[in-house]
Design goal:
The structure is a homodimer of 403-residue chains. Chain A folds into two domains: 172 residues, Acetylglutamate kinase-like (Carbamate kinase), CATH 3.40.1160.10; 146 residues, VC0802-like, CATH 3.30.2130. Chain A has 403 residues and is α/β, with parallel strands linked by helices. In chain A, helix 1 crosses helix 4. Chain A starts with a strand and ends with a helix. Chains A and B meet through helix 1, helix 2, helix 3 and helix 4 of A and helix 1, helix 2, helix 3 and helix 4 of B.
């Protein structure tokens, strides 16, 4: 017997038929003797529908009321799933944010879970009941409803796994695990059986939208084993552990890429303390999300070149902000709005010599021009022309034995 | 300055545009210096949609979870309306069932409001805030979500008016008041300016679906003045008072009718104590709603004839139950599944001689056959053949000076 947290995402509970199917998955775990705590998302599309309604009322809809509005989505799923379980003979109850309560701190629409009162639920579990908890939400100390950001049901699941001291936390979704690259584009991409938290974080920040990164981070912090698996097949998913638990036979675990990027290079920037802050502060204030930043060593000690990438949609806005910025002196600015970022990720990279060399050699063999490079402990990213994206991903996938 | 409870029904908040319109009505009352407490229903169609989802999961959906499910509808409207008010510069907050809390007793799906904790809301009101409260719901003593039956937002409004000691309770809906008969069928029907609680109760139990009868009853019990008015026009609605406050210039206030009725007559029923209970108990247990019951005096002191009406849909089921009932002896049973009930209603009737005679004479003039008669203090109902319905209503409307 184990204590399990099962989390079902929006597509997994997107229709009544799927909710009935999810109830069967839960029943199987329950009948096997496990104590089961279920976290649910809103039905697929529901949160966007509610958000759309709020936008039709105000572009700047009151954030307290937005949280009241959005949390209704998970409330509906919780009730429907609890009803479906009772229908098939499993004693089940929904436990809403305020009934537990799930205590959060921080602002509306962007709060953090700090605790759950689990004593009543634990009694219910030991009396052979399945508890259904709405994800994505909680209440503040003064009793307002709060939400914890899009994709927040993952965070609720990980928090529940920690607070209930669960043996596992299973994230049911519409894909059957984490892949070495995007399986829709790279047919030879393979499902990864085991992956470290670090690698998962790099992959998810690079476009693998399977789990919310901050939830993975929390799991890493408390060493909570995760498993990402499909609601629609019986196959094993991808297990996410700490690095120590993983035997690295391969230096590189996956190849990720992001699209819709743009690159800006500022040449001859006057190099003095605070110049980077002067450049990026106005961008941040205007909601421009800067991804990679590369600053070359200045040869003359007086000027430097700074390259950074942003989302393509933000390009015109960003150029405009930079041109109006009186606090930064530079010679010229160039931009390229058709670039993409390719990354190889692997916790084994750091201990495997030659990974960097092999990546650059592979891209050169394909005559792919590297526009910028950035590295971290377990990741190596390059910016290339967008047209070369798939060619590059396939080549790297082959080079690092992922096919 | 007055303290007002304003209640907006499902069609009044059925779209985003209508919610924006309702926000303007509320702002007008607020700017005029009133303290405003708003009760909202779910957006039109929402409750049925959620109910449908539950039925697709189970014909016998868990009642606790059904209440969790259904209450999400009013939560959504509350948040959207509070957001709309803030957008037009009116400080407003939604107060959910558990945040107040609205305390109820009784079973899930059929609870009664017993109290609201209004201290926090009163502080909010005096700090120039408009409070939005979801109708139809509350919580039980052990913290479960409860609902108070379909149309329950009216009951919430009346309960709020009582507990807040409000000066008025205005029910905004999609009709502009109570009419002397159905204006869609009887073009000469007129809006009633003032009506007593009793008359309103009789009219609503007879098919005028403007307000939930039990809410009118509560208003009567605590003498809370009501006004039913349209969300979509500026005109005055119908004011509902105690009888003493109304000057009766007319003996009859309105003519109501119900359709889809069926009549059953049992002839030669052995007349002994408890026979009526023996007939009607099995019907009640099988959810057959019996409306009128007429028992003729038995001439031979041994047998009696009993006539009663039911909804037409229940006719076959009712006959079946009666035939299987071993506790009741009778000679023959006849039925008529094409009847309707016509009622004249008026608190002034009791003090006006000849109302009964004029009604029967009017129907006779139109050669309308009366199949059964039933009377109360302020109501006189007859059962006639369905085909004569409109002819009868028009005739009575004219006779009693309602055109």
């Amino acid at each position: 017997m184990a204590k399990k947290v099962l989390k079902f995402g929006g597509t997994s509970v997107g229709t009544i038929d799927r909710i009935l199917h999810v109830a069967k998955i839960i029943k199987k775990e329950f009948v096997a003797g496990n104590e089961v705590i279920v976290i649910v998302s809103a039905m697929a599309g529901k949160t966007n529908e509610l958000l759309e309604q709020s936008k039709n009322i105000s572009k700047n809809f009151n954030k307290r009321e937005l949280d009241v509005l959005l949390t209704s989505g998970e409330q509906v799923t919780s009730a429907l799933l609890a009803g479906a379980l009772n229908e098939i003979g499993v004693n089940s109850k929904s436990w809403l944010n305020w009934q537990i309560p799930i205590l959060t701190e921080g602002k509306n629409t962007n709060a953090r879970i700090i605790n759950m009162n689990i004593s009543k639920i634990n009694i219910f579990l030991s009396n052979k009941g399945v508890a259904i908890i709405p994800g994505f939400q909680g209440i503040s100390k003064n009793g307002d409803i709060t939400t914890i950001g899009r994709g927040g049901s993952d965070a609720t699941a990980v928090a529940a796994a920690k607070i209930f001291n669960a043996d596992s936390c299973e994230i049911y979704t519409d894909v059957d695990g984490i892949y070495s690259s995007d399986p829709n584009k790279i047919p030879v991409a393979k499902k990864i059986d085991k992956i470290s938290y670090d690698e998962m974080l790099e992959l998810s920040s690079l476009g693998a939208k399977v789990m919310q990164p901050s939830a993975v981070q929390t799991a890493m912090m408390y060493n909570i084993p995760l498993e990402v698996k499909s609601t629609f097949t019986d196959r094993d998913g991808t297990k996410i552990f700490s690095e120590e638990s993983i035997d690295y036979s391969k230096s590189v675990t996956g190849v990720a890429y992001s699209k819709d990027d743009a690159k800006i290079t500022m040449i001859g920037v006057q190099d003095k303390p605070g110049v980077a802050a002067n450049i990026f502060e106005p961008l941040g204030k205007n909601q421009v999300n800067v991804d990679m930043v590369i600053q070359n060593i200045s040869l003359d000690q007086k000027t430097t070149d700074i390259t950074f990438t942003i989302k393509r949609d933000d390009l015109l806005k960003t150029i405009d902000i930079l041109k109006k910025n009186k606090n930064v002196k530079y010679d010229t600015m160039s931009h390229n709005n058709k670039v993409s970022k390719i990354s190889i990720v692997g916790a084994g990279m750091v201990s495997t010599p030659g990974v960097t060399y092999r990546m650059f050699r592979g891209l050169a063999d394909e005559k792919i021009n590297i526009l910028a490079i950035s590295t971290s402990e377990i990741k190596l990213s390059v910016i290339i022309n967008e047209e070369d994206t798939l060619k590059a991903v396939k080549k790297l996938h082959t080079i690092f034995d992922l096919d």
